[in-house]
Design goal:
The structure is a single chain. The chain is 33% helix and 24% strand. It has one domain: Hypothetical Cytosolic Protein, Chain: A, CATH 3.30.1230.10. The radius of gyration is 13 Å and the shape is globular. It has three helices and five strands, in the order βββββααα. The N and C termini lie far apart (39 Å). Strands 4-3-5 form a three-stranded antiparallel β-sheet. It is an alpha+beta fold and 90 residues long.
Length: 90
């Protein structure tokens, strides 16, 4: 019997390959809104990040989300993502 393939994705903060279920998807919707996608099924361009606030800080410092979405990501978006990430952890 063959083993099922585990999908791997790269965290934009720490740049480590991890199983998709261990990461949170950040999505840029068709409307241009950037938000966390806890279901992993929203339409739009996705980027993955670890569930730790440190990885979000690293991604912010390196402008990783701006490169992934090919658009400028404002500071307000990062603040919103941090608060949403805190809510998920609790």
């Amino acid at each position: 019997m063959t083993q099922k393939k585990i999908p791997m994705r790269m965290c934009t903060g720490c740049r480590e390959m991890k199983p998709k279920k261990e990461l949170i998807r950040v999505v840029k919707t068709v409307d241009g809104e950037i938000k966390l996608d806890t279901t992993g099924k929203l339409n739009g361009r996705g980027a993955y990040i670890c569930k730790s606030p440190e990885c979000l800080k690293k991604a912010r410092k390196a402008n990783a989300l701006s490169r992934a979405f090919e658009t400028a990501v404002k500071d307000e978006v990062y603040i919103t993502l941090e608060s949403e990430l805190d809510n998920i952890e609790q």
